[in-house]
Amino acid sequence: MKSKADRYTLTSSQKMMIFVLSMSLYGLSNMFTELIPKLQLGPIELSVEYFAFIPLTLCILFHPLYAAIGAALGEVIFGELMLGQFGGLGELEKFLTFSFAMFVAGSMVRDPRSRLQVGTAAMTGVVIHQLCSSLVDIGKVWIGVEEFEAVPGLAESVVLVEGVGFLNDVLFSGILFALLPTLYLVPRLHGKIEPLLGMKPRERRMRPETDRRRVAVLAIVGVVLGLIAFGAESLSESGFEWGSWDSGLADHLGDGAIWVSIGAAVLVSALVLAVVMLRKKTAADQSGELPHG
Amino acid sequence: MQIARRWLERLSLESFQTQLMGMVYGSGHAVLSRLDPRCMLIWYLFFAVAPWFISSLTVLAGMFLLLAVATVLSRAAPFILFILCLGLIGQVGWLFLLSLFFGGDAESALPLLKLTLKLSVVSLASITVFSGMDPERISDGLLALGMPAAFSFSLSYGYRILPVLLEEFRSVLLSYRLRGKAPAPGRFRYIRLAVYYLKLLVLSFYPLMLATAKRSRTTVEALEVRGFSYGMKNPASRRLKLEHLRTTWRDGVFLGGTAAYVSLLFWLG
């Protein structure tokens, strides 16, 4: 058991500062990455997927949990909502994988001055994020397309496309826009940016203090939400007939299919409303809790 | 040639910033902005979820028309619509190529048209609500529907601070360019230029991070002076903050009209 002085404790307003800082910076960078054109060389796409170095640097220098959640929220607000590209449930899954990967990367680093640790953490963060999103994409096609086995070559081609995308993102975006800038920025900012927020720099012996119970609750809620999002997405994916595959629902039920889909839509809307109402009642006195520890 | 040049001028960072300013600070005058934000969010929820489960072309086309009108009413900025078109072409065009590769033909364009309609209905709904309304109103609406206060605050803060950040970023980038040396003409000039600009883009984040850290400290201090984190936990003060949200006959007409129109579409389709 460590004594209190060795731990990296933050006041609730410092957590909020980290949250706001990470959100606005990563949000700004997201606007650029949406606008930078892509270079397509055959199946290989040289694109600036995201400026991962910003959340990585902030997660390494500050408390990883708040920096990670802030960055993910910044992406949703600036990159999706403001540009009108908000895809609903799909964003939930992106939000979860991204904040999880950044949180893990930030927690890995014990000493921000060690270049080896910073570099390993940066690459690990990118690999975790890309791996999660590729697996989710493959799984979506796997579950969503019922005649998966029936279409020859589909399984291989999906895995191939996702695999090439994964390698490309890790090797190109990962090295150029995560590893190198993080290695450049972390030693320069360490000890300079923390006093601006009124806190001590992270040192070798100080571990970020996290409430274990809260992290566990967050993780469980995250997994459940992710599963729901995943299920709903594959459901909707199976609804659109890609090429000549048909879900067959319309043939079986005729006109009834429309009413089934209206029913589903109404049900989903009603469920969301009910959940919101319930939460409003129970959480009226404890909302706004997240960055306030 | 002149048209191309005019388009390029429009694409500059400066005009982008001007349009952003207009979007963030000028949306209070739009017709839809006077509606109750809670109603707008529920309306959005329907159009974000429903299109995925509908496969009738008539219904989707009708919804698209309705949302196109709503987008015009919300006075969305042109560059947002431009980005939307770019994204749609990229996403659907890629799928079309893939399905051709798997042995599909021109017939596979029809399901893809459906997909395009679905995607654009969802996107237009989010443009209508999230860029056509005053950020404070959206954030109050989210708070009233039970979002945590930190999230709903971040939304309106993000909207307001973005043009300021962009301005700061531009001046940092310009000062780097003034002091630096762009690649001379010669072999592979465009590749070297791209590398140069990408490097500047990354380097500019170093001063920006320090400046933003200072700004976020000021913001949070200002918030705490007004009792943000404790006030928002208190039900009475929340009620006081959200008291100005009222549903009026306008909201009733809006939601009722949409419901009638959509059921008419389902009846036709």
Structure write-up:
The complex is a heterodimer of chains A (293) and B (269). Chain A has 293 residues and is mainly alpha-helical. Chain A has a single domain, classed as Arp2/3 complex 21 kDa subunit ARPC3, CATH 1.10.1760.20. Helices cover 69% and strands 2% of the residues of chain A. Chain A has 10 helices and 2 strands, in the order H-E-E-H-H-H-H-H-H-H-H-H. Chain A has a two-stranded antiparallel sheet. In chain A, a hairpin with a 2-residue loop joins strand 1 and strand 2. In chain A, helix 1 (12-35) packs parallel to helix 3 (64-81), helix 4 (89-108) packs antiparallel against helix 8 and helix 5 (115-144) packs antiparallel against helix 6. The radius of gyration of chain A is 22 Å and the shape is globular. The two termini of chain A are 21 Å apart. Mean pLDDT of chain A is 73; it is low at 238-258 and 283-293. By secondary structure, chain B is mainly alpha-helical. Helices cover 77% and strands 0% of the residues of chain B. Chain B has 13 helices and no strands. In chain B, helix 2 packs antiparallel against helix 8 (149-179) and helix 8 (149-179) runs antiparallel to helix 10 (205-225). The mean pLDDT of chain B is 81. Chains A and B meet through helix 1, helix 2, helix 3, helix 6 and helix 10 of A and helix 3, helix 5, helix 6, helix 8 and helix 9 of B.
